[in-house]
Design brief:
308 residues, alpha+beta, D-amino Acid Aminotransferase, Chain A, domain 1, five-stranded antiparallel sheet, 9 helices
């Protein structure tokens, strides 16, 4: 499936959840992303196969591929000199998740315990196994990849790099997770984050989404290798409060089907370059472990903030 998109695109502005060669359309509503053939097959299968259709609300909306005559697909030089990773031969068009927010606090969490498939180079397999072993991934199924939280005073995002998530131990995971959801005015966060009265209901909504993803994914026979769970929530206090007020008046399923982002948060799974769907695979224990860990982390943070 092809869809029209202008070649006058621009580099994707957010470091978190970004990839080499990723672009946004001029109005910021869409992302043009170089992808592996397997990733394109997954998105096409998601659109057509009722077996995995329940996952659609929790995956970025897929609008097709960039037409070959658009110029951008034919000429990698259009990508401002940004190199395209080997093997990424298609350009997929996806909704820009960031575009739904004024100031998106963003968390990228690597899911699963295994980050290679049967086509991975043996040397890379060893590196991936070591990374899983030496980080929180192997024992918990999650690793904090990158996150950004807006500073209320400067209106600028404060970014925490991948190196942080790779360095922390399992015992430090809850503390690291709390840094992604700071409370404004508290000593540990100062000018970062939202007031408690907004953050707690947002966390509860995020937990509801993660629980639903876990419920759906446990019923499917598929493997997401190297995928991430992306969580975004609004850093603008007024917009966050307005979104929560609207949510209280409208059931969650209506928000998901309306096509208009009314909630002050979202939860999506991204990165399907090494994803397989097929009967006989059985449940994806590594990703399910990660989703269970996420629920525990969310429960812990909600409890911590609910009883000051």
């Amino acid at each position: 499936m092809n869809t029209n998109a202008t070649s006058a695109s621009q580099p994707h502005p957010f470091r978190v959840i970004g990839h080499a060669g990723m672009r946004t359309t001029p109005d910021g509503s869409l992302i043009i992303k170089p992808s592996f053939p397997a990733e394109l097959r997954f998105y096409e299968t998601l659109m057509m196969d009722p077996y995995i259709a329940p996952m659609r609300p929790f995956v970025p909306r897929f609008l097709g591929t960039l037409p070959e005559n658009s110029g951008l697909a034919d000429d990698a030089a259009q990508l401002s000199g940004i190199s395209i990773p080997p093997g990424r031969t298609e350009f997929v068009i996806l909704e820009n998740l960031c575009n739904a927010f004024s100031k998106p606090n963003t968390l990228d969490i690597k899911l699963g315990t295994v980050f290679h498939d049967d086509k991975t180079d043996p040397a890379k397999v060893l590196r991936m196994q070591r990374t899983s072993r030496e980080t929180t991934s192997l024992r918990t199924g999650v690793r904090l990849t990158e996150f950004q939280v807006y500073d209320t005073k400067t209106s600028q995002p404060v970014c925490t790099p991948k190196s942080y998530g790779k360095a922390i131990k399992e015992s430090e995971l809850a503390k690291g997770f709390a840094q992604c959801f700071p409370v404004y005015g508290e000593p540990s966060s100062s000018t970062l984050g939202l007031p408690r009265r907004l953050l707690v209901p947002i966390l509860r909504g995020i937990r509801e989404s993660v629980a639903r993803i876990r419920e759906i994914y446990s019923s499917l026979e598929m493997r997401i290798v190297g995928g991430s769970l992306v969580i975004m929530y609004e850093a603008d206090w007024c917009l966050a409060e307005e979104g929560l007020r609207r949510h209280s008046l409208q059931p969650l399923d209506e928000h998901r089907e309306s096509g208009v982002r009314r909630l002050p948060y979202l939860v999506k799974i991204v990165d399907f370059a090494h994803t397989r769907v097929g009967r006989g695979l059985g449940p994806d224990e590594g990703v399910l472990l990660g989703l269970n860990t996420m629920l525990k982390l969310l429960d812990g943070r909600i409890t911590e903030l609910s009883y000051p």
